[in-house]
Amino acid sequence: MRADRIGHHNKDCYIYTDVNVSQILKEANKLQPDIIIIDSVQTLMSPYIDSTPGSISQVRECTGELQRYAKETNIPVFIIGHITKEGGIAGPKLLEHIVDVVLQFEGDQHYAYRILRTLKNRFGSTDEIGIYAMDINGLREITNPSELLISPDDAHLSGSAVAASVEGLRPLLLETQALVSPAIYGTPQRSATGFDLRRLSMLLAVLEKRCGLAYGQADVFLNIAGGIKVTDPSIDLAVVTALISSLQDMHISKKICFAGEVGLSGEIRPVSRVEQRIQEAGRLGFETIYISRYKAELLPKKDFGVEVRMLSRIDDLLREVFA
Length: 323
Known about the structure:
Number of helices: 9
Distance between the termini: 59 Å
Order of helices and strands: HHEHEHEEEEHEEEHEHEEEHEEH
Strand content: 25-35%
Oligomer: single chain
Strand order of the largest sheet: 9-10-8-7-11-14-15
CATH architecture of the largest domain: 2-Layer Sandwich
CATH class of the largest domain: Alpha Beta
Structural class: alpha/beta
């Protein structure tokens, strides 16, 4: 039914409905497929184990049989497993220890973007990710997600700044959006989507202490556009810029991007792969990128196609961008 819905028909795709792992492998021996996909391992059972499907002993035995079959026949076996609400693999942790690779396919039901991450790879790197969009025809690869995650500069609105982030090995430019407004109900609200709420509280404390900006009696809302969840600390500088922009109601040009981690003393710390971030900003037509002054001498002396400005503290940010 799902194949009919997306208009995709493949005569080489076979579906076998059985939960007995021995019977599944017997059918696989007859068919000799190029690849086997098990959905899901928690529903399988082995006739050699006297317990219910999904138990620790059943999951261990079924996964072990599938692994032995894959090693003996050189047929790749993909095992789909249930996950918890927190995003971890449900059930016993031994499943992660048995398999060679753990892939996580994450997304949000309210957004079209999906990210494929490698959490474990016994024979290779775990640094690369894949970004896809779900539409009516199925999954479509996003070759340049930065252009889709940054909204067009069609209005001079405050509270928005572009961050030069890195997801895996891929440089990614994201739009951070902040809204700062006076608290009406007494206790100020703090809300963050796609960003760590505790880190947002830390950045607000740094702005109050080091710059004298008043956020204590204001509601603060932060959003990473596109539904992307970011853990890269280099987004700090863009978040701080968006917060100041919203508080002072000043527009930040979409031709400017930021890459830097903010410390508790208000210093702007260097981030990894800064050369890749600068190159991506130049490729997408940005005019200026702000980075940390520390270790900037290690950058190669060449034309990146974008002006590189360096900052030491967030006081410099106030003078340079909000003067």
